[in-house]
């Protein structure tokens, strides 16, 4: 076990719950806490330090990188979902002036290795297909030319002869023994299957008064980042080294995996981070992009920039969201107590199993949600089809789990005649039960879910909306009030990647975060982080923590980004972890340096170090007015006056601090306990108000209310931005965003004309409030908040549509709720269809 024991209670836990609505937005006064502590900067809406360069266009994206002699890459994708490559003629492309290299899959394989796969199953994947394509858009050839236009023209000149094979697009049909194999090396298209029981599942089903069931479908969607995945690779053939500029999230976490793929020694691989330009999880690895740029720079000896175009990004990116079919049951006692939950899942992974069952690691962190459900059966089949492979996308598999569980709770409310808010209250984990161990073994750190629910109901003014609902129904209009109370697991540990295996290929247990901090001779604080600028606020968070620890202004803190050769270990963003982990790493480094400065100041003032305090950036003798030293005084002494410092102190003021996961436990050998791996658990209640046109199926959001608890709020404005942005993505998941494939496997949503996303016209006013139950495991009691909006919004909106169409007997069990599906639901209810 690492971290505190499950039943420990740290001092911050006694702070209970508080609101942050009355906090001032400027940091001119302290921020009092119920436990008597006072913070000056943690909890303040400090302006984002990242914004000026982003708004002024001064951040460096991959598309901004220009190197001497740089070439540009382009990709020819397959028009077929499944086909053998009979022949490829590249002669016309090679003859075009300005073309420097044309590579087929076999040729690229001589320069770079297959992409890393984080699974035990033999499903190798190359960035450019060899002999066979397995999804529409899969690369069959790549080109490097003096500009992108020439490279694209060269791709159009390549002639490929295909033998089209049957495409498999239905994941349940793909499971049949006689289904066309996606990979001939596998015995079937089921790449992974496991059934796990926690607690007395059969006993709970048998003794239940009521068992509600649902069959639900969650369709895949993509991140659609502002800048697509990209890289600039520069190969040095003389010392066999490679420098790569990329917008990968993991440049400082898995450079060895990238080096192995690119055929470069790990100590000769340098990855330089660029502004990510939007990721939402989709740029963790971007191995296709890196392999394409790497192969082309090796072939030409010149730097090569490859940036996906929008069609490439939609059809063939590394990471699309999950695509699942659920058959689920919830067993309840007569009084509405939730007893047991069973989930049978068919998950469409697309053509490759590159990231294994990683999204089920996320889902297993919170399958029973905020409820005291005693038993759980988790039955998962990971199935291969002729679609682009699944990867990580904001929510990473926990989002459909929330949808299915909350749909079951709403159905139980309806069947048992218990108000939907009341049935939740009866089953919430109580505040005094935290830290709480779930049936699967994960631990929830803290919470007061009933208080969040009550405040959300009050904030939304439910009685007024019910009155409005009745008024509109009299006019033949259908208003609906949604409700969802969901978890956001935050701060992952690497064990989630492998714990479903009995014999994992790489049973990693470390997801650390590091910073390098120094105070210069003039007292200036500099911090170098190992994570990239991925769209969140690392500079702001680090600056707030430094300001809190030294009592200085956050604007006086300089924050920079390290590359893979200079930065300390960093697992980067993902799983709503960075505020948690950066806070821990920064606070650790700050306190190491602060303690040294205290010792130097004490030596200079000839007093005991215990009698020195740091206040407002000044180190002063307690109770002795005027006896003090500034940070510049101590910085100068530490850097240039060695003989004036304590005898056992070295020169300088620098610290590298690595912060490991604050609380984790390993799974049991028999997998009856999956261990604690995602224990910082945020919670939210969302209440959307919708109006549904029953004839056209159009859903209009009228209002949206969200109450969120992510522990101690580091910066209310930043958290609100994350929540609102996540809700907007959740609106897309609920109403419009979906990959659609034809029977022949063709992608029917290849552009933004077919793949729809929410705009400002679909987003109502969103009212957000925060409540706080500090985590007992983390520095300052913070939890993550990066995915919470999206993890709750889709099911909350589904609940609202149900409520609106209750007169028709509609039950929403498939997302997104496109107009066509809503009309079909209404028609089906009229016809008595299930």
From TrEMBL:
Residues 1-24 have a biased composition (Basic and acidic residues). InterPro entries: Ald_Oxase/Xan_DH_a/b (IPR000674), Ald_Oxase/Xan_DH_a/b_sf (IPR036856), Ald_Oxase/xanthine_DH-like (IPR016208), AldOxase/xan_DH_MoCoBD1 (IPR008274), AldOxase/xan_DH_MoCoBD2 (IPR046867), AldOxase/xan_DH_Mopterin-bd_sf (IPR037165). Pfam families: Ald_Xan_dh_C, MoCoBD_1, MoCoBD_2. Residues 1-38 are annotated as: Disordered. One of its GO terms (molecular function) is oxidoreductase activity. Residues 56-166 form the Aldehyde oxidase/xanthine dehydrogenase a/b hammerhead domain. Residues 25-34 have a biased composition (Polar residues). SMART domains: Ald_Xan_dh_C (SM01008). Gene3D superfamilies: Aldehyde oxidase/xanthine dehydrogenase, a/b hammerhead, Aldehyde oxidase/xanthine dehydrogenase, molybdopterin binding domain. This is Aldehyde dehydrogenase. The keyword Secreted does not apply. Keywords: Molybdenum, Oxidoreductase. It comes from Pseudonocardia sulfidoxydans NBRC 16205. The keyword Oxidoreductase applies.
């Amino acid at each position: 076990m690492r971290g505190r024991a499950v039943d420990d209670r740290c001092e911050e836990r006694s702070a209970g719950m508080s609101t942050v609505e009355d906090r001032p937005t400027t940091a001119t006064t302290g921020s009092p806490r119920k436990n008597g502590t006072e913070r000056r900067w943690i909890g303040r809406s400090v302006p984002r330090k990242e914004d000026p360069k982003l708004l002024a266009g001064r951040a460096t994206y991959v598309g901004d990188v220009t190197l001497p002699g740089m070439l540009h890459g382009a990709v020819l994708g397959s028009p077929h979902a499944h086909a053998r490559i009979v022949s490829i003629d590249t002669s016309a492309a090679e003859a075009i002036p300005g073309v420097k290299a044309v590579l087929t899959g076999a040729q690229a394989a001589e320069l770079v290795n297959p992409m890393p796969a984080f699974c035990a199953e033999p499903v190798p994947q190359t960035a450019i297909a060899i002999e066979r394509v397995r999804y529409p858009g899969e690369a069959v050839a790549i080109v490097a030319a003096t500009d992108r236009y020439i490279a694209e023209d060269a791709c159009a000149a390549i002639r490929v002869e295909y033998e089209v094979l049957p495409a498999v697009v239905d994941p349940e049909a793909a499971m049949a023994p006689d289904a066309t194999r996606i990979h001939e090396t596998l015995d079937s298209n089921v790449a992974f299957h496991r059934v796990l029981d926690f607690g007395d599942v059969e006993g709970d089903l048998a003794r239940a008064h009521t068992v509600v069931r649902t069959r639900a479908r969650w369709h895949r969607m993509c991140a659609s980042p502002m800048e697509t995945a990209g890289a600039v690779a520069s190969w040095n053939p003389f010392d066999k080294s490679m420098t790569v500029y990329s917008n990968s999230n993991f440049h400082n976490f898995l450079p060895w995996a990238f080096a192995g793929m690119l055929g470069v020694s790990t100590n000769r691989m340098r990855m330089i981070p660029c502004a990510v330009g939007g990721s939402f999880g989709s740029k963790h690895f971007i191995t296709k992009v890196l392999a394409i740029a790497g192969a082309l720079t090796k072939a030409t000896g010149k730097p090569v920039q490859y940036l996906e175009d929008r069609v490439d990004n939609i059809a063939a990116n590394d990471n699309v969201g999950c695509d699942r079919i659920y058959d689920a049951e919830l067993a309840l006692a007569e009084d509405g107590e939730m007893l047991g939950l069973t989930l049978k899942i068919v998950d469409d992974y697309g053509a490759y199993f590159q990231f294994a069952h990683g999204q089920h690691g996320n889902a297993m962190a919170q399958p029973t949600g905020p409820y005291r459900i005693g038993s759980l059966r988790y039955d998962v089949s990971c199935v291969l089809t002729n679609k682009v492979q699944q990867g990580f996308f904001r929510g990473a598999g926990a989002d459909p789990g929330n949808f299915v569980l909350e749909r079951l709770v709403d159905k139980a409310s309806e069947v048992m005649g218990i108000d939907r808010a009341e049935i939740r209250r009866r089953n919430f984990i109580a505040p005094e039960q935290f830290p709480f161990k779930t049936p699967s073994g994960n631990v929830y750190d803290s919470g007061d879910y009933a208080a969040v629910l009550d405040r959300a109901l009050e904030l939304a003014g439910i009685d007024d909306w019910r009155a409005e609902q009745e008024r509109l129904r009299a006019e033949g209009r259908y208003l609906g009030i949604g409700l969802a109370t969901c978890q956001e697991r935050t701060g992952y540990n690497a064990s989630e990647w492998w714990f479903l295996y009995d014999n994992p290929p790489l049973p990693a247990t470390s997801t650390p975060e590091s910073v390098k901090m120094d105070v210069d001779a003039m007292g200036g604080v500099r911090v170098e982080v190992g994570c990239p600028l991925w769209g969140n606020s690392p500079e702001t968070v680090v600056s707030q923590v430094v300001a809190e620890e030294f009592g200085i202004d956050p604007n006086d803190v300089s924050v920079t980004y390290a590359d893979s050769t200079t930065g300390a270990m960093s697992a980067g963003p993902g799983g709503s972890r960075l505020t948690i982990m950066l806070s821990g790493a920064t606070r650790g480094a700050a306190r190491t340096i602060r303690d040294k400065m205290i010792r130097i100041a004490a030596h200079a003032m000839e007093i005991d170090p215990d009698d020195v305090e740091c206040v407002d950036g000044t180190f002063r003798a307690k109770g002795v007015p005027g006896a003090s030293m500034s940070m510049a005084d101590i910085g100068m002494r530490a850097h240039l006056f060695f003989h004036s410092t304590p005898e056992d102190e070295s020169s300088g003021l620098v610290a590298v601090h690595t912060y490991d996961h604050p609380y984790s436990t390993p799974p049991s050998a028999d997998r009856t306990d999956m261990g604690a791996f995602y224990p910082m658990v945020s919670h939210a209640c969302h209440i959307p108000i919708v109006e549904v046109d029953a004839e056209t199926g159009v859903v209009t959001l009228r209002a949206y209310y969200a109450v969120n608890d992510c522990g101690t709020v580091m910066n209310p404005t930043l958290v609100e931005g994350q929540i609102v942005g996540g809700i907007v993505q959740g609106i897309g998941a609920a109403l419009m965003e979906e990959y659609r494939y034809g029977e022949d496997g063709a992608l029917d949503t290849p552009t933004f004309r077919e793949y729809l996303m929410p705009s400002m016209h679909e987003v109502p006013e969103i009212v957000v409030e925060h409540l706080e139950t500090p985590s007992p495991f983390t520095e300052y009691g913070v939890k993550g908040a990066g995915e919470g909006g999206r993890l709750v919004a889709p099911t909350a909106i589904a609940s609202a549509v149900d409520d609106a169409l209750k007169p028709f007997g509609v039950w929403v069990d498939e997302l997104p709720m496109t107009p066509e599906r809503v009309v079909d639901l209404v028609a089906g209810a009229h016809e008595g269809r299930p």
